[in-house]
Specification:
Helices cover 57% and strands 12% of the residues. With 227 residues, the chain is of the alpha+beta class. Helix 1 packs across helix 3 and helix 2 packs antiparallel against helix 3. The longest helix has 32 residues. The relative contact order is 0.10.
């Protein structure tokens, strides 16, 4: 067990260092801000400790709270930097959806796509079905409507929510996509969620329906275009 913990710690430290380097490329002040938060938190608690004549106890508490505050601030700025780098990249919404599987969500990326590469992803959970579109808002709305119509044959009794990722009016930013899904009211029991997923799998999706040949693709062959 000791060897396992020793081998895991360097991996975590390496991951933190890598995250810091990636964050600093986007947020150059992250180091100063995190350090300032730690120093101020520790300083305030230590000052209170001297004021009430318990500097050791408050110093220890201040150190722990300073470490916690630094971790929270660093985590939020790292997350913001990551979303900033993903913003506008194809498939960014799918990457965010993949991270909410812990809440019982099942994600299927690219269930619909057009020739302009606007895309719709699908997430299924206790809130029902959520269709998330990214790309040109006008074209994405048409894709969402077509996908709703396609699903209506087999999941007419399930609530369907549609979201367009973006910063315009009526859209949801990439940073708020995760929390938006988690705030949706849960109306389906677990067994029904499983049944809905099974029905949607039977319906298929863009990737499973795409006729990809086995083996190397012949020269000059073009991939089939989406709808």
């Amino acid at each position: 067990m000791a060897r396992k913990e020793t081998s895991e710690n360097p991996g975590r430290l390496k991951q933190i260092a890598l995250t810091y380097k990636m964050t600093k490329k986007v947020d150059s002040k992250v180091g100063l801000v995190v350090a300032a938060v730690g120093i101020v938190t520790f300083g305030v608690l230590l000052a209170i400790g001297f004021w009430i004549d318990h500097p050791i106890y408050l110093g220890i508490l201040g150190f722990l709270l300073a470490f916690l505050a630094m971790a929270i601030v660093f985590g939020r700025r790292a997350e913001r930097a990551a979303f900033g780098q993903m913003e506008g990249q194809p498939g960014a919404a799918a990457a965010v959806l993949e991270n909410i599987r812990r809440g019982g969500w099942t994600t299927t990326p690219a269930v619909a796509m057009n020739r302009s590469q606007d895309v719709v992803h699908r997430a299924v959970g206790k809130a029902g079905i959520v269709l998330v579109g990214e790309g040109n808002p006008n074209r994405v709305k048409a894709l969402l409507a077509a996908e709703k119509k396609r699903m209506a044959r087999i999941v007419a009794d399930v609530p369907v929510h549609d979201i367009v990722v973006g910063d315009g009016e009526g859209q949801v930013s990439l940073q708020k996509l995760h929390t938006t899904l988690l705030k949706l009211p849960r109306v389906l029991p677990g067994a029904q969620v499983t049944a809905v997923n099974d029905r949607l799998r039977a319906l298929g999706d863009l990737m499973s329906n795409m006729p990809i040949p086995k083996g190397p693709m012949p020269k000059g062959t073009r991939m089939p275009k989406g709808r």
